[in-house]
Automatic annotation (TrEMBL):
One of its GO terms (cellular component) is cytoplasm. Signal peptide: none annotated. Pfam families: Exonuc_VII_L, tRNA_anti_2. It catalyses: Exonucleolytic cleavage in either 5'- to 3'- or 3'- to 5'-direction to yield nucleoside 5'-phosphates. This is Exodeoxyribonuclease 7 large subunit. The gene is xseA. Residues 12-101 form the OB-fold nucleic acid binding domain. It comes from the Bacteria. Its EC number is 3.1.11.6. Heterooligomer composed of large and small subunits. Its main location: cytoplasm. Residues 125-439 form the Exonuclease VII large subunit C-terminal domain.
Length: 454
C-alpha cells in the first residue's frame, strides 16, 4: 500500500526542500581547506573544491563576491571561506555559496605585511620629514589600548612611578580580532576631535602575527599619519614590528619604554576610565547582540524569498552550457583545421612551383654562360683594337713629330711644302710634337745649303 500523496516528492521538490533546510540551518559558517579543481568561466564566477586529507566539498564564488578578494586564488592555496551551505537543484549536488574568501595561515599575513609596507613606504607615508616632534612636557597624554591588557598595566606602573601628577586618558579599543582596527581608527579620530591630550601612546602586549594584525592594517597607518597629535607606537615585544611602528612619530620597543619616554602618570583617572569603559563595553555588547539577532532574522527571511537564489542557479547553469559550447566550438575548429592541413599538403604536391623553380635554375645557368661568352668576345675585341692602335701609331704623322720634325702651316691652316711659298716677314704656324709656335720669316733658303735671301 502506497504512502499518502503529501509525502511524495519530485526530485526538483526534494532538492528545493533540502536546499531551504541547509540554508536555514547553516546560513553562515567558516571552512578552511585547500583549493582544488578551480574553474574560471568567462562569467567571472569561480568554482572550486575545498579539501582536506579525508574529504572535499564543492564551492561557488559568484562574480560580485570574487571581485572583492584581495588575492588571486590558485589550486593548492590554503584558504578560509565564509559561506552558507546550499544545494544545486539541477544536479542535487551539495555545495557552499562563498561570501568571503581569504588566505589562511601566517605566511599569507607575512606576505600581506611586506606588500603593504613597501607600498606605503613608496608613497612616502613613513618619510622622516612627516614625523611630528614629541612634546617635552606634555600636560596630558592618551593611551590607545585594551584597558584589560598587560600593556596598560606596564604603562601605568611606569607613569605612576615617574610622574603621578600628569593626567592620562585611556582610549579603550580591542587590540586583536575582527573590528579591532576599526576601533583604533575611530579612537584616533576621537582623540583628534577632543584635542585633550598633547601626545598619544598606541600600545598592546606581545602576541603572534595574527594577534598583532590590527596594527598592520592600512587604515590604522593612515589614521596615525592623519592625526595631528604626536604618537608613540609600542606594540608587542622588542622583536615585534608592525606597520603602525613605521607610521608613528616614534617607535618604542615596549609599552614601558613608551611610558618612560613621555613620563606620564594616569593614576588619578585610571579607575574612572576603567569604569566608563566597562559600562560602554557592556552597553555596546547588549546593543550589538540585539541588533545582530534582529539582522539574523531578517537575513533568514530574505534568503527564503530573495530572487538572487534563482539568478545564481541560472548563472551556474549558464556556465555549464558555456563550457559545453566552448568544447564543441574547439572540436569543430580542430576538425576544420585538420581538413585545411590535408588540402594544403595535396595542393603543395600538385603545385607548379617546382617546375617554375627548375626553369628558373636553367635560365640562370644559360644567363651565366651568355655572360661568360660576352666577356670572352669583349676581351678578344679589346686585344684586336689594341693591336690596330699600335699599327696606326707607327704610320701616324704624330710619330714623325716625335722624332724631331715639325709641320709648318699658313695662317689659314694650309701645309707649307716649299720655301718659295713664303716671303720674308710672313707669319707661319709651326706644330711640334709637343706644343706649337708662331714664327716670322727672316730668311728663305732654297736648299739646306743655300744662304741667299730675296
Amino acid at each position: 500500500m502506497s504512502e499518502p500523496e503529501q509525502n511524495l516528492y519530485t526530485p526538483s521538490q526534494l532538492n528545493q526542500e533540502v536546499r531551504g533546510m541547509l540554508e536555514t540551518v547553516l546560513p553562515g559558517i567558516w571552512v578552511e581547506g585547500e583549493i582544488s579543481n578551480l574553474a574560471r568561466p568567462a562569467s567571472g564566477h569561480l568554482y572550486f573544491s575545498l579539501k582536506d586529507s579525508d574529504a572535499q566539498v564543492r564551492c561557488a564564488l559568484f562574480r560580485a563576491r570574487a571581485s572583492r578578494a584581495n588575492f588571486r586564488p590558485e589550486n593548492g592555496d590554503q584558504v578560509r571561506v565564509k559561506a552558507k551551505a546550499s544545494l544545486y537543484p539541477p544536479r542535487g549536488d551539495f555545495q557552499l555559496i562563498v561570501e568571503h574568501l581569504e588566505e589562511a595561515g601566517e605566511g599569507a599575513l607575512r606576505r600581506a605585511f611586506e606588500q603593504l609596507k613597501q607600498r606605503l613606504e613608496a608613497e612616502g607615508l613613513f618619510a622622516a620629514d612627516k614625523k611630528r616632534q614629541l612634546p617635552s612636557f606634555p600636560r596630558r597624554i592618551g593611551v590607545i589600548t585594551s584597558p584589560s591588557g598587560a600593556a596598560i598595566r606596564d604603562v601605568l606602573s611606569v607613569l605612576e612611578r615617574r610622574f603621578k601628577a600628569l593626567p592620562v586618558i585611556v582610549y579603550p579599543v580591542a587590540v586583536q580580532g575582527d573590528g579591532a582596527a576599526g576601533q583604533i581608527v575611530r579612537m584616533l579620530e576621537i582623540a583628534e576631535q577632543r584635542n585633550e591630550v598633547d601626545a598619544l601612546i598606541l600600545t598592546r602586549g606581545g602576541g603572534s602575527l595574527e594577534d598583532l594584525w590590527p596594527f598592520n592594517e592600512e587604515a590604522v597607518a593612515r589614521a596615525i599619519r592623519a592625526c595631528p597629535i604626536p604618537l608613540i607606537s609600542a606594540v608587542g615585544h622588542e622583536t615585534d614590528v608592525t606597520i603602525a611602528d613605521f607610521a608613528a612619530d616614534l617607535r618604542a620597543p615596549t609599552p614601558s619604554a613608551a611610558a618612560e619616554t613621555l613620563s606620564i602618570d594616569t593614576a588619578a583617572y585610571l579607575e574612572r576610565i576603567g569604569t566608563l569603559h566597562r559600562r560602554l563595553t557592556a552597553a555596546e555588547h547588549r546593543l550589538r547582540n540585539s541588533r545582530q539577532e534582529r539582522l539574523d532574522q531578517l537575513e533568514r527571511r530574505l534568503a527564503c524569498q530573495h530572487p538572487g537564489r534563482k539568478l545564481r542557479d541560472r548563472a551556474q547553469r549558464l556556465d555549464e552550457l558555456e563550457s559545453r559550447l566552448r568544447r564543441l566550438v574547439l572540436a569543430t575548429i580542430s576538425n576544420h583545421r585538420q581538413k585545411i592541413n590535408t588540402a594544403e599538403q595535396r595542393l603543395f604536391s600538385a603545385s607548379p612551383k617546382r617546375r617554375i623553380d627548375d626553369s628558373r635554375r636553367q635560365i640562370q645557368q644559360q644567363l651565366q654562360l651568355l655572360q661568360q661568352g660576352m666577356r670572352s668576345r669583349l676581351n678578344d675585341s679589346r686585344q684586336r683594337l689594341a693591336a690596330t692602335t699600335r699599327a696606326l701609331q707607327a704610320v701616324s704623322p704624330l710619330a714623325t713629330l716625335e722624332r724631331g720634325y715639325a709641320v709648318a702651316q699658313h695662317p689659314d691652316g694650309k701645309v707649307i711644302r716649299q720655301a718659295q711659298e713664303l716671303k720674308i716677314g710672313d707669319t707661319i704656324y709651326t706644330r711640334l710634337a709637343t706644343g706649337a709656335l708662331d714664327c716670322t720669316v727672316e730668311r728663305i733658303y732654297q736648299q739646306h745649303t743655300d744662304t741667299t735671301s730675296s
